[in-house]
Amino acid sequence: MPNMQPAVLVVDDEVHSLDAIRRTLEETFPILTASSADRAKEILDQRSVSVVLCDQRMPGLTGVEFLKQVRERWPHIVRIIISGYTDLEDVIAGINDAGIYCYIQKPWAPDHLLATIRQAVDTQGLRGDLQRLDLELRSSPSVLLQRRSEKMARVRDEFSFERIVRAPGSPVDPVCEVAARVARYDLPVLVQGESGTGKELLARAIHYASPRADQAFVVENLASIADPLIESELFGHKRGAFTGAYEDHIGLFQRADGGTVFLDEIGDTSPALQVKLLRVLQEGEVRPVGSTRTLQVDVRLIAATHRDLETAVREGRFREDLYYRLAGITLAMPPLRERPGDLPAIAARLLEQAARDLGREALTFSADALSTLVTYPWPGNIRELRNEIYRAVVLSEDHCIRSTAFSRKVQYGQVGQTVPGMNHGIPATGTLQERLDAIEAVVLKEALLRHRWNKTRAAQELGLSRVGLRQKLLRFRLEEK
Asked: Name one Pfam family in it (predicted).
């Protein structure tokens, strides 16, 4: 089935920059590209576009000038601009005239760019929903209330703890059980875990299981915002607070008033920002940049980090009082290498998503492909797994994904190196018996995972008695999942 997602138009006169943005976004959205404002307007006359992402520096029209024209002729399109630090003054000055949704500072991070475009697409969809709801409200208020209730129920279900993909008995189960109990109470939560383990997904589930579920859930990655801009983005600013601040700007905490704020990578914040975040937690108030008055806000804060904050506190890099305010409840998302039993289910969900996004029919994994995925340690966690599966879908010509479609490091089970001729992380050194034992342990583990730890079926596949299989499991310490 062809991809029906909203198209994103990228406008940049630099070919390398255009290609980099296209590669970052094309796995998730249909991408149209233009190297000039004139070509972009031709595309907008012919194609339906949800988001325009434009560089500020272009020959002829600047990005802001072009987006002003877009606002006049295609007001429904969400407008985003990319700018270097030296151009920020001009961009900020033109934000209101051009109706710019947000700006992204160079050098941009792929994850932040993708997340921003996702939010912009969602915003464009919500605008359409609001227009339809407005018509319904005029004709029948009761229909509006019913539709709103139905939509809220769907959102709660989509982001529920049950929707976090995992197998029965997963290490994620106890994390979700604690999170579900915590969700009902208005306490700050600190989610710890490596990059790509699903910390934001857990935070969303907490929000939609809480009494604040019908209010805003606002996300910000603190590591992706330049230091001079971060206070303005979080707390807002007043007109005239700095060069280019021609209008008041509402900060993230004000936009989330009544709802939940999720701050990712909080361990990367500066000491000055830590003081201001502490004030939000203690007093429930923020002070916009350039203002002499504080504003009361009612938000629940969920923070996340891949860093060891306790060590950072001991070394003086993170405020102790802020840490204890954030860590009212601490949850730890386990890395993918500690949850191999979940990997087949996660991989199947990602394969389904990749096939849908890339316009392919239903695909399946071969036994060797699934075995390869299970035995690789995944230092990049689910984000790395997703990239490998999208790659495999693109490279596979038939309906079965084989291990040869994965990158060499995944095929050979090595992190940071590949050893041709070796498979699934079998050691390249050691005595013959030690290496044979390692191979036998991998084969046993693969069979058990393939049969979801059903020992009778695994023993039948391997030509062993159940007693013989149990002895080998004890020998290789595989008796427990």
From this structure: Response_reg
Q: Which letter, b or e, does each residue of 413-429 get, where b requires 16 or more Cβ atoms within 10 Å of its Cβ?
A: bbeeeeeeeebbbbeee
**From residue 277, how far is each of 229, 258, 269, 292 by CA, in Å?**
15, 17, 10, 17
Q: Which residues contact 352 (CB under 8 A, 6 or more apart)?
A: 362
Phi, psi at 464, each rounded to 5°:
-115, 155
Contact between residue 28 and residue 71 where contact means Cβ atoms under 8 Å apart: no
pLDDT digits (tens, 9 = 90+) for 393-443: 998 988 999 988 998 888 876 544 333 333 444 555 667 777 777 778 878
Rounded CA-CA distance 52/63 in Å is 11
Give tens-digit pLDDT for 97-119. Answer: 788 888 888 888 888 888 888 88
Contact 220, 268 (CB under 8 A): no
| Residue 355 parent element (H or E) | helix 343-357
The Cα 41–Cα 152 span in angstroms is: 37
* β-bridge mates for residue 400, sequence order: 364
**Alpha-carbon span 19 to 324, nearest angstrom:** 44
Closest CA to 63 of 82, 45, 76: 82
> What are the residues whose beta carbons fall under 8 Å from the beta carbon of 35, sequence distance 6 or more?
11, 12, 13, 15, 18
- 140 vs 134: CA distance, rounded Å: 10
Threshold 0.90, pTM exceeds: no
3-state secondary structure of 249: strand
* DSSP one-letter code for 156: H
Angle at which helix 367-375 crosses helix 381-395, to 10 degrees, equals 150
Q: How many residues does the chain have?
A: 481
Task: List C-alpha distances in Å: 12 to 145, 317, 355, 434, 479.
Answer: 43, 39, 29, 56, 57
Q: Which of 44-58, 84-98, 188-202, 392-406 is predicted with the least confidence, judged by mean pLDDT? A: 84-98
List domains and CATH numbers for the chain: 8-121 (3.40.50.2300), 159-334 (3.40.50.300), 338-475 (1.10.8.60)
Kind and range of the H or E run holding 401: strand 400-401
- The amino acid at residue 475 is R
CB of 221 closer than 8 Å to CB of 102:
no
- Classify burial at 98, counting beta carbons within 10 Å of its beta carbon; exposed 0-12, middle 13-18, buried 19 or more: buried
Three-state DSSP class for residue 40: helix
